[in-house]
Amino acid sequence: MDIENIAQQVQENCDLSDAKHWGSYTICGLLLRLMDLYRWSEGIEPWVKIDNPELMDWVGEKEERWKKIRENEYKNIVIEGREYAPLDANGINELLEPKGFVYGAGYVAAMKPSFFLAKKEESRIEDRHKIFILGKELARDLITTPALLQGENIFVRTQPARSFIWHKITEFKFSGKESLKHAFAYYGIDINDIKDAEEVDRVAREELESYIHHEIGEAKDTVFPDEKWEEIVSAFSLTPTEKFARAIKDILADTNEHGTLRYIIDNKREGSLGFYAALISGFRKIIFPEIVIAFESFRGKADWGVIETARQRGHENASGYAERLVEMYENGSSKTEIEEELIRPFGI
Q1: For the chain, which ranges sit under pLDDT 70?
Q2: Domain coordinates of the chain in residue numbers?
């Protein structure tokens, strides 16, 4: 199997997706994703300083390529003489997985198609889900999500995961978030004095289970039906309503009996709790402010009951928002009406 040729085909669709959808990001968000993509394409480790002139030259070339291809159509993936639709991940993986590779394809925020091709490190079955732990990526786009749920499969991407952890170290130097400091201290790391890259890679590996349980929680969510949620995010793509709906879905996944916080509490994962409290932001923080307050209390008492109470409260609140959003959508409420009732009360 000519895996290099397959990777090239996947990368062409990755580039095309980026060309069509880069405008859905803020300038800051786009720049961060471009820097991460540059590191990946050039094989630069997350802790190595980037040469800014070279980065800007690369970004300029990328933008020129996007202009040339953005009107193109996505191409089928040809493997051993057979064509597969770009979103036919299951069909493609029937051929690739026995060879030690995994292909991912699906829609992400703003209905952006996202693709990647990676080496498979290991796989396992948990609660009827097949979980793939992936290593080196041979093709990818701007999306840096460490874990993705696609059908019954959960893909865990170790390269974006380790980059994500390194980004948090940089963020701490600017924000000074005590929750981040607490998270790294749990792993025996002084965030102000990191001497060994392997230490941080160990943290990234340890945190993979938290990402996995977010995806399991999302799959098990019964409050916000997938088909209705997909209709809403599609109908209100690139609006505050889409972001609000995605945040609700995330909080429901994190706070239900199968999700992230249930895993963290049951296994007393203080490091993972620190990361969770540090990274919750935007609509997720607005919907679920209890977890930040609970974490501050937890730091002083190490009382897991406080976190459990917050988890239950967060699930209750998110459920209420989900039910009302679905009700308004089914009744034909406009974007303006939804935002006026559900979003503007937060001062947004």
Answers
A1: 176
A2: 3-142, 208-346
